[in-house]
């Protein structure tokens, strides 16, 4: 079997017999000497590049790369993007004898510290990226990763900021374009996946159509560092550079693989195809990584590896990564390793995406596409609503089983399904008329138990079962997925009770006290569904059939629950009490829990309090982690806390 790429002459054999690409790595211990002047801790610390290097060595990966020592940038190259004054000021730092002089200079910049070695490190960081980019452009290397510090992307033409002294990536890009025309690099794509906006890089190529700058970053309407409007999506560049600056400004933290991949698939990749770069420079900060103390996002090493893999389809794989931010030592080491493995074209590391993009992610992506479609035809089409109202994988319905208990359920399901089919054939019978009325009214269904996990809730809408459920749901008559999903908290006490449930087996299930308790906060996932669907959820939650002639909860009941706050429906089910928690966008927020009288019985011990069934708790954790964006530890602690406090 022929090995891909072998004929290009760029791949070479290895002792393990595999053929891989020639990957350059720059590492130079000298860059560790840049540190805080009096030994205070700082997130941008020398160990950042050490841990990355150690990880690559320990994994046996650096040994398969071409290791290139650091090299010092030339002033004339730095001056391609920086002012003479800025370059000589940074240069002069090395000759200053006293810390206080450097501290004075540092204090005039935003988020900068300096010591006697800062200048040397800054020259090395910029020069190393230049050298690596040159080797890749020349074809001596296929691609590479410059493990450098201080970082660069915040540094502006005349200013250091945000831990950055020189703009390493921008210097390298300008060097290739202006100093090495014979290499044939005419168009450069700079991708900046650091969690912060690459304000410096944006400024340097603002009017330059030879450089397409793409930055995805936490923005929070201008509240996140570097604060202001520069990172907003309406900043598209100017003059001939108009349309060659693309910002994807996240409205919130906690963005993860799904959000970043959505930006890749629906913005960056189509635009990169149109632009067709000659080389890609990647401002590879790893501060959007899960666990980063500054970024607050959740990109996994797998996520980074997929993002990188997708970029390697361009410019014949000519790509140069330069480290920017990233402050969790473990996260940056693992993310870096995942990336170098991709550069080596090892088989992609294992992983999968379970979460969906935030609703706000789609909003931002739509807005970016709309703004940039004037320049990039591939962004013109509106994204389909099927994509945005993410459907979960089709639930698996298991009907046949030797387990007698399951057979009972199966019979029940088949029975209900056949009824549904019959009813579907006479749409206009009396029994369906309530459905027509209630289908016109939207409510928020607020879930605080296993329904917080979207796939579990969708069983009540679309039918089916998820892992851990012993029972199949028939779903609602109207199987339209929720129109919107959002999260919030309400001051009600969450607790777990009952001996066991049909769906989850031995163990308690979640309730909230229908009465508010300002000392408690319960996390909830809100699904915008119709009042008709809400009735079908109520039926299923309370063990009733969905083909009822009358609703459990009609418009009159809605009116009185909005007034009274809570209404027991006399359904006999555990969740037969509908509580109105308030309104959002003028739509009532409803939830279902036990009656106030049942809370008294839980308190007296007449009905047992009990920690949740394991599968049930796991499902809640999945919901809280994927949608509620808690860490797994936080989610477990949240459940443990609710399960262990006395009522
Ligand atoms: N309130 C990079 O990741 N934060 N720089 C300062 C001031 C500065 C991050 C907060 C963050 C800079 C390369
Ligand atoms: Zn950053």
TrEMBL record:
InterPro entries in UniProt: HDACs, His_deacetylse_dom, His_deacetylse_dom_sf, Ureohydrolase_dom_sf
EC annotation from Swiss-Prot or TrEMBL: 3.5.1.98
GO cellular component: cytoplasm; histone deacetylase complex
Example GO molecular function: metal ion binding
Signal peptide: none
GO-annotated biological processes: epigenetic regulation of gene expression; regulation of developmental process
Catalysed reaction, written as an equation: N(6)-acetyl-L-lysyl-[histone] + H2O = L-lysyl-[histone] + acetate
Domain of life according to the entry: Eukaryota
Residue ranges crossing the lipid bilayer per the database entry: none
Gene3D superfamilies referenced in this protein's UniProt entry, alphabetically: Gamma-glutamyl cyclotransferase-like, Histone deacetylase domain
Family membership noted in the UniProt record: Belongs to the histone deacetylase family. HD type 2 subfamily.
Keyword vocabulary terms for this entry: Chromatin regulator, Hydrolase, Metal-binding, Nucleus, Repressor, Transcription, Transcription regulation, Zinc
The Histone deacetylase domain, residue ranges: 42-342
PANTHER family associated with the record: HISTONE DEACETYLASE 18-RELATED, HISTONE DEACETYLASE HDAC1-RELATED
Cofactor list: Zn(2+)
EC main group: hydrolase
Listed name of the protein: histone deacetylase
Subcellular compartments: Nucleus
């Amino acid at each position: 079997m022929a090995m891909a790429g072998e004929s290009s002459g760029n791949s070479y054999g290895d002792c393990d017999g595999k053929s891989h690409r020639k990957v350059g790595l720059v590492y130079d211990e000298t860059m560790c000497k840049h540190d805080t002047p009096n030994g205070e801790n700082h997130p941008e610390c020398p160990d950042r590049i050490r841990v990355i290097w150690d990880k690559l060595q320990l994994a046996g990966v650096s040994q398969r790369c071409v290791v290139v020592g650091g090299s010092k940038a030339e002033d004339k190259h730095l001056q391609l993007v920086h002012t003479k004054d800025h370059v000589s000021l940074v240069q002069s730092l090395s000759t200053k004898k006293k810390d206080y002089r450097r501290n004075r200079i540092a204090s005039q910049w935003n988020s900068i510290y300096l010591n006697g070695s800062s200048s040397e490190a800054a020259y090395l960081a910029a020069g190393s990226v230049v050298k690596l980019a040159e080797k890749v452009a020349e074809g001596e290397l296929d691609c590479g990763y410059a493990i450098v510090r201080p970082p660069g992307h915040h540094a502006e033409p005349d200013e250091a900021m945000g831990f950055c002294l020189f703009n390493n990536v921008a210097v390298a890009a300008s060097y290739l374009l202006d100093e090495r025309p014979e290499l044939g690099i005419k168009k450069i794509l700079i991708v900046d996946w650091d969690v912060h906006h690459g304000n410096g890089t944006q400024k340097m190529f603002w009017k330059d159509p030879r450089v397409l700058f793409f930055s995805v970053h936490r923005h929070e309407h201008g509240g996140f560092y570097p604060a202001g409007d520069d990172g907003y999506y309406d900043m598209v560049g100017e003059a001939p550079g108009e349309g060659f600056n693309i910002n994807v400004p996240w409205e919130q933290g906690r963005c993860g693989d799904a959000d970043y991949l959505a930006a890749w698939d629906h913005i960056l990749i189509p635009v990169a195809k149109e632009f067709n770069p000659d080389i890609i420079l990647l401002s590879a900060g790893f501060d959007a990584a899960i666990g980063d103390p500054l970024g607050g996002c959740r990109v996994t090493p797998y996520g980074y590896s997929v993002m990188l893999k997708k970029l390697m389809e361009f410019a014949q794989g000519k790509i140069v990564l330069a480290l920017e931010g990233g402050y969790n030592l473990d996260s940056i080491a693992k993310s870096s390793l995942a990336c170098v493995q991709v550069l080596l074209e090892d088989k992609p590391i294992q992983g999968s995406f379970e979460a969906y993009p935030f609703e706000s992610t789609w909003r931002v992506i739509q807005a970016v596409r709309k703004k940039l479609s004037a320049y990039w035809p591939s962004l013109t089409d509106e994204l389909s609503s099927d994509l945005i109202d993410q459907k979960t994988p089709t639930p698996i319905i298991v009907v046949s089983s030797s387990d007698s208990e399951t057979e009972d359920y199966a019979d029940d399901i088949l029975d209900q399904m056949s009824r549904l089919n019959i009813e579907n054939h006479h749409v206009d019978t009396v029994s369906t008329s309530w459905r027509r009325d209630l289908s016109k009214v939207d409510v928020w269904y607020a879930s605080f138990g296993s329904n917080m996990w979207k796939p579990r809730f969708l069983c009540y809408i679309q039918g089916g079962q998820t892992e851990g459920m012993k029972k199949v749901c028939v779903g609602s008559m109207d199987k339209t997925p929720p129109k919107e999903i959002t999260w919030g908290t309400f001051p009600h006490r969450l607790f777990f009770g009952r001996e066991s449930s049909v769906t989850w087996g031995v163990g308690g299930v979640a309730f909230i006290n229908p009465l508010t308790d300002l000392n408690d906060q319960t996390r909830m996932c809100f699904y915008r569904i119709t009042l008709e669907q809400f009735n079908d959820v109520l039926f299923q939650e309370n063990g009733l059939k969905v083909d009822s002639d009358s609703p459990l909860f009609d418009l009159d009941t809605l009116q009185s629950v909005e007034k009274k706050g809570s209404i027991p429906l006399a359904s006999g089910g555990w969740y037969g009490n509908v509580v109105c928690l308030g309104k959002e966008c003028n739509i009532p927020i409803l939830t279902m829990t036990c009656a106030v009288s049942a809370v008294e019985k839980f308190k007296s011990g007449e009905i047992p309090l009990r920690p949740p069934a394991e599968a049930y708790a796991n499902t809640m954790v999945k919901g809280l982690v994927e949608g509620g964006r808690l860490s797994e530890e936080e989610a477990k602690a949240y459940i443990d806390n609710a399960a262990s406090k006395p009522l």
